[in-house]
Amino acid sequence: MSLIIDCHGHYTTAPDALGDYREQQKADLRTNPLFEHSRGSIDISDEQLRDSLEAAQLKLQSERGTDLTIFSPRASWMGHHIGNQSTSLYWTEHCNELIYRITKLYPKNFVGVAQLPQSPGADLSASAAELERCVTEFGFIGCNLNPDPTGGHWTGPRLDDRYWYPIYEKMSELDVPAMIHVSGSCHHCFDTTGSYYLGADTTAFQHLMMAKQLFIDFPDLKFIIPHGGGAVPYHWGRFRGLSDMMKLPPLEEFIRGNIYFDTCVYHQKGIDLLLDVVPIENILFASEMIGAVRGIDSNTGFYFDDTKRYIDASRLGDGEKRLVFEGNARRVFSRLDNRLAEVGLL
Amino acid sequence: MSLIIDCHGHYTTAPDALGDYREQQKADLRTNPLFEHSRGSIDISDEQLRDSLEAAQLKLQSERGTDLTIFSPRASWMGHHIGNQSTSLYWTEHCNELIYRITKLYPKNFVGVAQLPQSPGADLSASAAELERCVTEFGFIGCNLNPDPTGGHWTGPRLDDRYWYPIYEKMSELDVPAMIHVSGSCHHCFDTTGSYYLGADTTAFQHLMMAKQLFIDFPDLKFIIPHGGGAVPYHWGRFRGLSDMMKLPPLEEFIRGNIYFDTCVYHQKGIDLLLDVVPIENILFASEMIGAVRGIDSNTGFYFDDTKRYIDASRLGDGEKRLVFEGNARRVFSRLDNRLAEVGLL
User: Fold this and answer.
1) Contact A234/B245, CB-based, under 8 Å?
2) Whole-structure pTM over 0.90, yes or no?
3) Do A81 and A33 meet the contact criterion of CB atoms below 8 Å apart?
4) Which candidate in A159, A189, A269 is best for mutational testing of the B interface (most B CBs within 10 A)?
5) Given CB 3.0 to 4.6 Å as the disulfide criterion, which of B7, B142, B284, B336 pairs with B113?
């Protein structure tokens, strides 16, 4: 049996109660930016969860012929720049717990990836603890790591700084990868799902490319750069040339066991470039569904983000397609096979 | 007679005296950030100018078979974030005057494009005045406009804000285009010729795409987005989809007479994507030579930035190649034809 595994899906269709909880946090913060939140509760029934998914992600999975989505809380709502550590911690716990409930309701359709309770200036101990909780208690298989929890200002350290080591240590210990994914922009010059996401993907790649010590200290650390790697595959020659000028290892060698790109590129020619330029072993199928771009391409009559169609129509042979659709995800998310076996998909 | 016009070349090989002048400015600023510089002088002989070009840009023009380079001061040295208005004004005047002297020494090889004396927080009156001086006195045909004179912090207004109108008014009056080009990054997270340049290109495109009033107020304003448009052509589907969700005009229609991309993309497959996705009328040949990436591609044995080879090898027919190599540049830089006629190239 072969599977189509979408490694990048967000719960963007949550019932209003989730947004209401967040609005209350923001209201509390307006009284005091250092407001110490309590955990509180969010009242969402299983039926509401089902309703929010049946006509959306589940319908599209079925229509598009994809099987399993590696599913995480809505990226643009992570909002790590909002409030303080307590804001982010409780918000994140609730968001992750909704994902966990969804993976229990639809175990063959969704497997969880954790949001982390990052907060500007806070260390990463809460994030490491939440990752451990999600992996060991909820069966999650990875996390989304925000390289810029300031929402566009990038005032934190570069990705190879020791600041990040607590989360890298936990990722290594649990053997789970991270998708590097910013959240909503609070910077007036950056637009969330366009320039900010794509710029952040490119920035993250360059941090990792230029890291001197990181992959010596953590040789098995695995990162997925979303949105087709930002600008990187289009500028593969530039990055090969820059890497060469800096006397770094060749890009193909550098990324081999550590850096992966997803296929959230919303037109055939972009996908074709990605598949032509980046080694197939480093590409994971993904649609970001339901995500940034929700419309239908008037040129094709199909959804922009129905990326399976582009892979299907590409020049890849069957074996290569199987790697992109399934094999690479099962290798990068090392805990996925156990999960697939548990739910009868393997 | 047909011409190969490279619309993006920088004077990156200036004699040491230029760098020495800049170091003195920085030394003055260390005594007082508000230091009011005097213009001073830079002693560089015509022979030194020739020596700095003969074995570099001129040699490569000849080897690669390109004719004319639209030439501007070194982009990464514009350094608008350094010092104050007086710092930027005198530095810019000297840089532009060197370009002017070069265009007099080699009138068939170089035509000038102006650096602008932008400075964070300063209005654009000095920039408008310098553009006028360069166009009317020196025969320059355009300018480089820095969308982020803060060097990575992006604390200034978006490109469609009325803050920028004095330079847009002057560009419209003189009928000259601007290449939108950031300078060196002083932000620890952004790497100048990689993530910063490419992120800025993408950011600038999105500002312009989302501008409500700008192209109503200035219908003939022309911008060139360098480095192949950052991430935009690779993510053409995403931007088409985002534009559609925002109920903006179709991208092809939006860019038609106002937005152009250069061909500074340093591998065949990237160039092929650009030529496949963006209307040919909106693409201008460029190499950035001598620029960000100076090495030889071990896969091809040729310089990464020898972009003429990629265009030559592309699927374009002869008529389309002529547009990219010559016709589009002559249309976008409306003052170019007069200049070509003056120097006997037309």
Assistant:
1) no
2) yes
3) no
4) A189
5) B142
Tokens matching residue A288: 């970001």
To the nearest 10°, report the CA torsion of B178, B180, B184, B187: 140
Which of B203, B234, B298 shows the shortest C-beta gap to A195? B203
Minimal CA separation from B238 to chain A, in Å: 5
CA distances from A37 to A83, A85, A91, A114 (A): 10, 9, 10, 21
For residue B242, the chain A residue with the least C-alpha distance is A293
- Using alpha carbons, list the distances in angstroms from residue B26 to B29, B65, B75, B87: 5, 39, 18, 9
Tell me how far apart the alpha carbons of residues A252 and B75 are, in angstroms, rounded to a whole number.
30
Number of H-type helices and E-type strands within chain A: 15, 8
Residue B344 is given by DSSP the state T
H or E element: which one contains B179?
strand B178-180
d(CA A23, CA B28): 50
**Plot region of A183 (φ>0 → left; ψ -120 to 50 → alpha; else → beta):** beta
The answer to whether the CB of B254 falls within 8 A of the CB of B279 is no
Q: Which residue has the tokens 């199909």?
A: A302
The 10s digit of each residue's pLDDT in A12-68 is 999 999 999 999 999 999 999 999 999 999 999 999 999 999 999 999 999 999 999
- Name the amino acid, one letter, at B164: W
φ/ψ region of A126 (left if φ > 0, alpha if ψ in -120 to 50, else beta) reads alpha
Q: CB A202 to CB B231 under 8 A?
A: yes
Cα separation of B165 and B153, whole Å?
Answer: 21
In 3-state terms, what secondary structure has residue A190? coil
Residue A238's alpha-carbon distances to A241, A252, B15, B34, in angstroms, are 5, 14, 26, 38
Residue type, B257: G
Return the structure tokens found at B128: 């408008």
Closest CA to B197 of A261, A184, A234: A234
Tokens matching residue B195: 């993530």
CA distance B178 to B221: 9
Chain A residues whose beta carbon lies within 8 Å of the beta carbon of residue B148: 189
User: Is the Cβ pair B154, A187 closer than 8 Å?
Assistant: yes
Residues of chain B with pLDDT under 50: none
CB B226 within 8 A of CB B264: yes
Question: Which DSSP category does A74 fall into?
Answer: -
Q: Distance between CA B181 and CA B197 in Å, rounded?
A: 8
Is 80 exceeded by the pLDDT of residue A1? no
Q: Give the 3-state secondary structure of residue B221.
A: coil
Query: Shortest Cα distance from B39 to chain A (angstroms)?
Result: 34
pLDDT tens-digit series, residues A239-275: 999 999 999 999 999 999 999 999 999 999 999 999 9
Condensed to tens digits (0 to 9), the pLDDT of residues A95-115 reads 999 999 999 999 999 999 999
